[in-house]
Amino acid sequence: MSRPFLIREIRQTCMACPSLFEGTTFDGLDVYVRFRHGTLSIDIASETVLMRRLTDSDAGLMTYRELRTVATHMFVFPDECADEYDPAELDQYLDFSFGPRADAREYA
Predict the structure, then answer these.
(1) What is the CA angle 43-49-53, rounded to 5?
(2) Are strands 47-53 and 39-44 parallel, antiparallel or unpaired?
């Protein structure tokens, strides 16, 4: 597989704990992204191509914008993410704190 990976489409399938994204590359390979316990992992065709600890907290929430910022050195993502959750929605569903969020700008 060559780098950078060109992602054709991506959708968010879980908002938090873990944040999950699934999609395909322009070559038709499956993409699976997971952010849980402060660790980001990205698999292409069932092979882990990136695993990175982003924070020491148990963070499990990552927005699409944060994902694009953190992984921009290896991936070209589409501008839009299908089914992306609005981070503001979290307050409606969760009554506890995830602790400090990983600030993606620190890892770009």
Answers:
(1) 95
(2) antiparallel
CA distances 95 to 3, 18, 36, 92, 98, Å, are: 40, 16, 18, 8, 10
- Please write the tens of the pLDDT for every residue from 45-58: 999 999 999 988 88
In a domain, 75, yes or no: yes
Instruction: Return the pLDDT at 89.
Output: 64
Question: What b/e sequence results for 70-93 when a residue is b if at least 16 CB atoms lie within 10 Å of its CB, and e otherwise?
Answer: bbeeebebeeebeeebebeeeeee
What's the confidence (pLDDT) of residue 39? 94
What pTM did the predictor assign? 0.78
- Give domain status of residue 29, yes or no: yes
State residue 76's pLDDT score.
93
Q: Which domain holds residue 78?
A: 5-94
